[in-house]
Amino acid sequence: MHPLPDIIRAWWRPALGVAWLLAVAFLTLQPAGMRLEEFGRIPELCLFCGTRGAGDAILNVVMFVPLGLVLGGRSRSLGAIMLVGAALSTGIELGQVFVPGRSSSPADVLWNGLGAGLGGLVHARIAARVSGRARAGALPWLAALLLTLPVLGILATPAPTEDDYWGQWAPDLGHMPQYSGAVLEADLDGAPLLSGRIPEPGPHRALLEKDWTLSGRIEVGPAPRSVSPIVSIYDGQQREILLVGAHREDMVYRERRLAHDLLLEAPDVRVTDAFDDRADGDTVTIGARRANGILCLSLDATEWCGLGITPGRTWGYLLYLEGPPEWFRRLLDAVWLAMLFFPIGLFAGTRREAVIGGAVGVVALLATVAFTPLVAGAPLVFALECLAGATGAAAGWAVLAFLRRAADPRQSGVPASIATNH
Questions:
Q1: Cα–Cα distance for residue pair 20/17, rounded to 1 Å
Q2: Can you tell me the mean pLDDT for 90-100?
Q3: Engineering a disulfide at 50: which of 38, 164, 210, 235 sits with its beta carbon 3.0 to 4.6 angstroms away?
Q4: What is the tens place of the pLDDT at every residue in 157-167?
Q5: What are 134-163's pLDDT values in tens digits?
Q6: Which is nearest to 164 in space by CA: 262, 258, 238, 256?
């Protein structure tokens, strides 16, 4: 007898269910603010609501996948699992009516129900794989990864809008803190960039589709607690096109990307601790430029080139967290890549197949940074991201081996629910 598999079999459903309920309550039922640019723009009935509606929809699906895993098996139909997910989601949406800063959406019920159904489907696939009834093979999952990586890269493509642009000096935008320093002068490609409409005939998209250089001379202000624009460009519909700002001691760069057009977010690009040795009131020159597709940021005579979004940072398309320290975002980068590679190992037929699948995935990472706007970043950073992907594939194989052992009646004497109840 092996007591550990018996304990896993008996408690994995209630343990995952309780953890899921606590996490969902924390994420959905605590007071929250609404972005000013989205206030009043969200219709009562919409599938993709607000400026990041696609990202919210995907997160609502993913959030209810654990519920489907808990309910999967025991002869429950996929429709029944989706119905339970939709019912719980309806309760959450009704509860949010009484939570300050929260808004309810019937679309969330749909996405949550689909997420529960997806979890039930995943449970069935894992159960069939563990019990040996499903044909072994990581090829479909590897193909999905090879398709996903270039798509993530293409989403990072700069996408300036077809409109007139306005320059802004330390603007007070409401949804971001105003920079407490002063902008003394700014220019775009050598021409003055004043606080107002760019005087050249519009639309101004052509200014940023070619190589360009933006610079500004500023007086350093106190370190802002969240991203604060110093020199920025917005279009006539108040959409952010380009921003150079500060967050704590970091220099931050943001631009409109294809991800925004598809109602997703996009991670910012930053140089950590760039302002660390600058005192309040110091006069410095900040700059950003793109030449031959390479992005560079500068502070006085120091320039950092080859900056951009790395493959690991693409989790930010769904919900970018700018508040945590950089080491925490790096940890999320590794977890995200490990999750993308995880199914390759979980559904591999042999250990050799898992290793080959992980290696092919790492090669795909190399190709992604070579042929899409994603960048490798520092050599050590990219090496760690490749290692995270390979570790994800290995973890998938390890989980498969554990589930096989837990489900083997010759070892435990009792069939595992995840292997037999589907």
A1: 5
A2: 76
A3: 38
A4: 999 999 999 99
A5: 666 788 889 999 999 999 999 999 999 999
A6: 238
Backbone angles phi and psi of 101, in degrees to 5: 85, -5
Taking the CB of residue 27, how many other CB atoms lie within 10 A of it? 12
Q: What is the mean pLDDT of the chain?
A: 87
51 beta partners: none
Local confidence band at 408 (pLDDT 50, 70, 90 cut-offs) = low
Structure tokens at 215: 């610079």
Q: For 263-289, what is each residue's pLDDT tens digit? A: 999 999 999 999 999 999 999 999 999
